[in-house]
Amino acid sequence: MHIPDGYLGPATYLAAYGVMVPFWSAAAARVKRTLRLQKIPLLALGAAFTFLVMLFNVPIPGGTTGHAVGSVLVAVLLGPWAAVAAVSVSLLVQALLFGDGGVTAFGANCLTMAVVMPFTGWWVYRLLSRGVAPDSRRRALAAAAGGYVGLNAAALTAAFLFGIQPALAHDAAGRALYCPFPLSVAVPAMAVEHFLLFGFVEAAVTGLVVAALARSEPELLREPEGSLQEAASPPRWKRWALALLVAALLTPLGLALPNFFKAGDAWGEWGAEDLAKKAGYVPAGLQRLEGLWKAPLPDYAPPGGGEASLLVQSLWYIVSAVAGAVLVGGAAWGLRRLLGGRESHGPS
Amino acid sequence: MDLPEWIQPGIVPPGRPAPPSGAASRTARRTLGRIVRASALLLGGGGTPEGFLAGLDARAKLLGVLSLLVASTFASRPESLAAAAGAAWVVALAGGVSPRRLFLMLSFVPLFGLALALPAALSPVTPGQPLLVLLRYPAGSWGPWRWPADLSITAGGLYVALRLLLRTAACLSLAALLTASTPASALWRALRGVGAPAVFSMTAGMMARYLELLLRAAEEVHLAKISRGGAKGAGFERAWAAASLGEIYQKTRRLADEVTRAMVSRGFTGEARLLEDGRFGAGEVLFLLASLAGAVALALG
């Protein structure tokens, strides 16, 4: 799962650093606000523990061994924001001191293993263990499910980062400059080994450690007052904003997947030009009305439309998604203010 | 730090019973081997760095090496990448880095790199002029997947694989140059010095100390296991590994609480003075300028 140096081009690893900066800032701010720096030892413990988890070999079928990543385990024990900080530090130590994972790819590795994995796994764990006693068996099963889902989500993210490289960067002869495996190779390769093998290793380690702790010291699984667990429940509007941001960042999938599957336009969404090709003529009414409104961002594309590279088109997709969300959200907020006045500004 | 002789496979000291064998025991040995190697690297297995590189301010080395690392991801010619890797080795060895430490840090690169890069040389990944046909079968396609009429090593594929390997080797050699010539504690201070949040540099510094304790605890449980038990099956091994991790977590959690109380009682308020007085002399400036010049040449070359 650790992406080495040289496999991601500058466009990808710089973008990954760009995505990680707000997460690192938020994690640092939350640590300051909720744990205060006096509790740094707890984070250091989480980082060291993650590192150690990766050293523990676990037997898997076929006579070989694998190791877990441990991000979901740290998220379960210390909270997802603590996991962002702890796993990032652990990955930094691995990259710098042990050459495990690249220095330029550090942001991308943090994105997969310190953000996608702990948050996805922790949400699954929370969903399945809500209202369950700390020493309940269900809690260990929820942690195992969280470990499995979290690892697979991280693996798919890494596969996506690998798979877009041939499309993003190649030389004049069309040969890939970085990872040469396209999405059609990277995604199945990563998915199969993680769905069928490493996901179960992660699930076993996460679930069994939580079960062992539930038996011997269930208090460790209770969310302590003032911990980063508590801090992981931001106000509702922040959660919505985060969800929207994640959704906006995923919108380029709408470009990549049709390209990947060689799909055409959605049925019934043809422009006059496409319709002329398909039906042989353009209805007069459609021709008259088509030019009625000139959209500021037609087809969510940059000026020049489909001629731009996939990366540029993806960026415009994200810009369009953010702009759209802000406009719709602003309009809804304005409407609410107009109709409902300024009451109820308490915590929701 | 090496594995105790009696635990190494095939070595049975006189007067001692043979160590337990079997898959489960091999797993414990393998894990112990990883733990011992990690401890050796973390605790300065190759000795304290010496030479002119070790004498340079860590911030200058960090910035210089980072610029070269970024430049090597922009370089596209295999010759430039090979030159970068070679130069990193020459500078490291001339600068006083122990060859053993350098080798220890880069030993897994050829195997790992080849495993990842070699499939790129095959025709389904990089189509082109076949150099060696490995297999022939009917061409076809299924959804987005298409396969040619043969599985062969192509000229373009070899070029892609070579470039990928050399890029990885250059990046790893540069990173090794930095970390083999700089103590970990100085590296964390340097990170703080170039703007990393205090939380991360302090956590990294403390993590290294915890890790030492955790590794010792893990080593003890593995040694105890190998010395006491034979093979008991994969299910038992999994449960044992998880229980050990749980036990180690509890131990160190208690330790973390004690450390916190000790730090607070000594007046720690969350503000750490990590960086000593800057020592940015002519040597540091020269190193930075040389690194930047090298980075520009590499990126453009």
Describe this structure in words.
The complex is a heterodimer of chains A (348) and B (301). Chain A has helices at residues 10-35, 40-53, 71-78, 80-98, 106-129, 137-163, 165-168, 183-216, 228-231, 236-250, 253-260, 272-279, 284-290, 310-340, and strands spanning 58-60, 64-66. Chain A has 348 residues and is mostly helical. Chain A folds into 2 domains: 10-233, Arp2/3 complex 21 kDa subunit ARPC3, CATH 1.10.1760; 254-340, no CATH class. In chain A, strands 1-2 form a two-stranded antiparallel sheet. In chain A, strand 1 and strand 2 (64-66) form a beta hairpin. The longest helix of chain A is centred in the middle third of the chain and has 34 residues, at 183-216. The radius of gyration of chain A is 23 Å and the shape is globular. Residues 224-232 and 342-348 of chain A have low confidence and may be disordered. With 301 residues, chain B is mainly α. Chain B has one domain (22-267, 280-300). Helix content of chain B is 64%, strand content 6%. Chain B contains 11 helices and 4 strands; from the N terminus they run ααααααββββααααα. In chain B, helix 5 crosses helix 7 and helix 9 (198-228) crosses helix 10. The model of chain B is unreliable at 9-20 (pLDDT under 50). Classes of the chains: A mainly alpha (348), B mainly alpha (301). At the A-B interface, helix 1, helix 2, strand 1, helix 4 and helix 8 of A face helix 1, helix 3, helix 6, helix 7 and helix 9 of B.
